[in-house]
Design brief:
The complex is a heterodimer of chains A (about 280) and B (about 260). Chain A is an all-alpha fold. Chain A has 2 domains: about 35 residues; about 240 residues, MetI-like fold, CATH 1.10.3720. In chain A, about 75% of the residues lie in helices and about 0% in strands. Chain A has 11 helices and no strands. Chain B is α/β, with parallel strands linked by helices and about 260 residues long. Chain B is built from 10 helices and 10 strands. Helix content of chain B is about 35%, strand content about 25%. Chain B is globular and about 55 Å long. The termini of chain B are far apart. In chain B, strands 6-7-8-3-9-10 form a 6-stranded mixed sheet, with helices on both faces. Chain B has a 4-stranded antiparallel sheet with strand order 2-1-4-5, with helices on one face. The chains are: A mainly alpha (about 280), B alpha/beta (about 260). Chains A and B meet through helix 7 and helix 8 of A and helix 2, helix 3 and helix 6 of B.
């Protein structure tokens, strides 16, 4: 056999192997949980020691965490990205900020959890709450959004921004009326992928926002919440065999939810590439 | 002097530096009002630098600095009290590749008037229609003004960019190789358009395409290595170049 043929076989086997692992994760998680989906599963709170009922409070909790953390992360991330791309240039502050963002992206999530616990829960006195959890997760998402906005703005052809300046536009007009709309799809994709991470993150929310079990939904941002990942964690760690179905069902739902978010993100990305 | 002959832009002993490197050396030239002036020369000769110095677009390039004056209607554009927003409204620019903004055809044209404070809907509609008509694009797009500007062909996009520049009512239009990314038919459309526009506007065009410069320009500047080698009426230069370098360039020996 020729060398080229051998190498192409190796590439093919490796890619099939990776594809198989991914499919296996999907099939095992979704396959073993989807059978428990029912009307009650999505509309009821858990009951009888997690052996009956559904996961409604966890779904609502996760959605609340998702929305609230994006409410914090999107504006701060956008402004950081805009600053880096359009104002910072090669200044020392911009360089430091860039390094900080890159390092943040590499910090393990449990460290974010501990950070949130000490800063938001204890120092700020938010205790274990929706607010503390969302803030912690928003700090995790910040670097993703900031660096994407930065890169997306820098990737815009110079002549597009020059065309706007040449019409007499001021810097803020160029940024907000031309550059941001130009980079809109990339920014939206980053926000969705960041959102997908937020909803699946377990360690930070366990430490800062999640409650083990609650029969009532949170009434303010200072209340703790149930979330999907923490619910799955608690059930698998602390409950017996007859509660495991709920963890499986919740995992399947979480997986599908994240896949849908990613599918939307990839769809936007594909549409953008067609342009 | 009649209005047609009075220089609208006067470049006086102008130097442009990229850091230490001089991109323009002691250039002086008077651009005639309501004429087409072409700036030609081989790559890296400084023709784009000269063009981009007129509306101070090169200010955005880190390390770019200048010496000497460029007067627009008698006022030095490099004076500290010059309002770039107003100056650039009067001196529009079109680039090599079409640069439509990510919005509808209508909003692209209305962008300039809007940032200069115009809100009146009827007035905006009038400007959009007139600008597109002047850029010979109206008939092709009048029924799809609210479609994305990206749906247009390359040649249409470039005419859209010209219409967008016209919408802020400029007096001068600077064009930086506006047809080098276009096919021959789209190029011809733009050339015809520029000749029409020179009735009412001063047009300064940088081009790589010598034949194009000869076809459309009234005056010509030949630049080489940052220096203005020869300038004058296009017909005279083509017929009887005074400088040897110009002659070599016209004959395709350098370029």
């Amino acid at each position: 056999m020729k060398k080229d043929t051998v190498i192409s076989y190796i590439f093919r086997i490796v890619s099939y192997f990776i594809f198989a692992i991914v499919m296996l994760i999907f099939i095992l998680t979704i396959g073993s949980g989807i059978g428990y989906f029912s009307w009650d599963f999505f509309t009821q709170a858990p009951s009888n020691g997690m052996t009956a009922g559904g996961i409604l409070p966890a779904i609502l909790g996760s959605l609340a965490v998702l929305v609230l953390s994006l409410v914090f992360a999107i504006p701060v991330g956008m402004f950081t990205g805009i600053y880096l791309a359009e104002y910072g240039g090669r200044t020392v502050i911009a360089q430091l900020l860039m390094t900080a963002i890159t390092s943040l992206a590499g910090v393990p999530s449990v460290v974010f959890g501990l950070f949130g616990l000490s800063l938001f829960c204890i120092t700020f006195g938010f205790r274990t709450s929706l607010l503390a959890g969302s803030l912690t997760l928003s700090i995790m998402t910040l670097p993703v959004i900031a660096s994407t906005v930065n890169e997306a703005l820098k990737a815009i052809p110079r002549t597009v921004r020059e065309s706007a300046y040449a019409l007499g536009a001021k810097k803020t007009e160029v940024i907000f009326k031309v550059l941001i709309p130009y980079a809109k799809s990339r920014i939206l994709t980053a926000i969705l992928i960041g959102g997908g991470r937020v909803i699946g993150e377990t360690a930070p929310i366990l430490l800062t926002g999640a409650i083990f079990f609650s029969t009532t939904l949170p009434t303010s941002v200072m209340d703790p919440v149930m979330t999907l990942p923490s619910h799955i964690y608690y059930i698998s760690m602390a409950y017996g065999e007859n509660a495991q179905w709920m963890a499986k069902g919740a995992s399947a739902f979480l997986m599908i939810f994240v896949l849908v978010i990613y599918a939307i993100a990839f769809r936007i990305r594909r549409k953008m590439n067609e342009r | 002097m009649s209005d047609k002959l009075r220089p609208i832009i006067e470049v006086k002993n102008f130097y442009g530096y990229y850091g230490e490197k001089a991109g323009l050396k002691d250039v002086s030239f008077n651009f005639a009002s309501k004429k087409i002036t072409a700036i030609i020369g081989p790559s890296g000769c400084g023709k784009s630098t000269l063009l981009r110095s007129i509306n101070r677009m090169n200010d955005e390039i880190p390390g770019y600095h200048t010496e000497g004056d460029i007067l627009y209607e008698g006022k030095n554009v490099y004076d500290s009290d010059v309002d770039l927003t107003i100056m650039r409204k009067k001196v529009g620019m079109v680039f090599q590749k079409p640069t439509p903004f990510p919005m509808s055809i209508y909003d692209n044209i209305a962008f300039g008037p809007r940032i200069h404070g115009l809100r009146n809907k009827n007035k905006l509609e009038e400007i959009v229609e007139n600008s597109l008509k002047q850029a010979s694009l109206w008939d092709e797009v009048k029924d799809e003004l609210h479609k994305s500007a990206y749906s247009l062909s390359g040649g249409q996009q470039q005419r859209l960019c010209i219409a967008r520049a016209l919408a802020v009512d400029p007096e001068v239009i600077l064009l930086d190789e506006p047809t080098s990314a276009l096919d021959p038919i789209a190029t011809q459309n733009i050339e015809v358009l520029l000749e029409e526009l020179s009735e009412n506007y001063t047009i300064i065009i940088v081009t790589h395409n010598l034949a194009q410069a000869v076809r459309i320009s009234d005056y010509m500047l030949f630049m080489y290595r940052g220096e203005l080698i020869e300038s004058g009426e296009t017909s005279m230069i083509v017929k009887q170049p005074e400088n040897k370098l110009t002659e070599q360039y016209l004959n395709g020996k350098i370029g």
